[in-house]
Amino acid sequence: MSTNLFDSTSFEPARHGASNASIVVLRSCATALALVSLISALLFGLYILAFYAGAVAEGSMMQWNRILPRIYETDTPTATFAIGVHFAAGGILLALGGIQLVNRLRVRYPALHRWIGRVYVTAALMTGSGGLIFIVAKGTVGGMPMNVGFALYGALMMLAAAQTIRYARARRFDIHRAWALRLFALVIGSWLYRMEYGFWKMLAGGVGHMKDFSGSFDIVMSFFFYLPNLLVAEVFIRARRVTAPSPLKLLGAGVLACATAFVVVGSYYFTKRHWGPAILHWVALSS
């Protein structure tokens, strides 16, 4: 299975006037975003596993509520199990997603690529279903807007995972790659969700955020953490086509460049303040 961003066949000179320069710029921006996303998603995936698995190992499950209230409550075991599956599978997703972007792995080790892809899709289905079961069994802290936004997120992730494997098995690899890109765009939503809250707190002082996630900003974020990602993916999917005009390729490159800058700044801040310390604590606990 392939979520490769830079399949060389997608950047052949177009017969309809797209310049080689725009192709090179788009390819370079895609490569930069993929590299920083690979590193950042891996770090965040390790952080998720360290934070939630570390709390289980230490017997301090109430720590789960530090970021999102009411995630863990002793009287809702079904919801707790479902969200635990969601977090564990989500950590695996983030750790493996960047690996699937490496073109060399797909070309040189296709069998390994396929097996990692199967694990990746299975983890996506588990992540989506775990989140949906939690919402049905308990509901989110933010009420109906968050319930709807997060349920749509889980449903879209499961759809993208199913379509990714469906078209891989049908050997329709162009369509497969497009769905795999959509899946990756959704997968990184949980990682961007925390980044976007952090940036909003720094830039706007957290205006519109309430402790029970019922504020105006919280309502917007119930959808914003994944819908723009899908928009970026769609722009790139269309821009990478050989028949796409140069302006569309340059627009796609600009969108990718902005996304890269956002990820670099956010990753530095969160690794220094949150992800790094939690990962190091987990390593110390395990040793």
Low-confidence stretches: 1-18
Q: What is the typical, i.e. mean, pLDDT? A: 82
Shape: globular
Give the class from helix and strand content and strand pairing.
mainly alpha
| SS field, number of helical segments | 10
Tell me the series of helices and strands, N- to C-terminal: HHHHHHHHHH
Span of the ends, CA to CA: 35 Å
Beta-strand content: under 5%
Q: Give Rg in angstroms.
A: 19 Å
What is the number of strand segments? Answer: 0
Helix content: over 70%
Total domain units: 1
Mind describing the biggest β-sheet? none
Keywords:
287 residues; mainly alpha; 10 helices; 0% strand; disordered N terminus
Task: Provide the fold topology.
Layout: H1 20-57, H2 77-97, H3 103-108, H4 110-137, H5 144-169, H6 173-187, H7 189-204, H8 216-224, H9 227-239, H10 246-286
Helix pairs in contact: 1-2, 1-10, 2-4, 4-5, 5-6, 5-8, 6-9, 7-10, 9-10
Note down, in words, how this protein is organized.
- The protein is mainly alpha-helical.
- It has one domain (8-286).
- It is 74% helix and 0% strand.
- It contains ten helices and no strands.
- The protein has helices spanning 20-57, 77-97, 103-108, 110-137, 144-169, 173-187, 189-204, 216-224, 227-239, 246-286.
- The longest helix has 41 residues, at 246-286.
- It starts with 19 loop residues before the first helix and ends with a helix.
- The model is unreliable at 1-18 (pLDDT under 50).
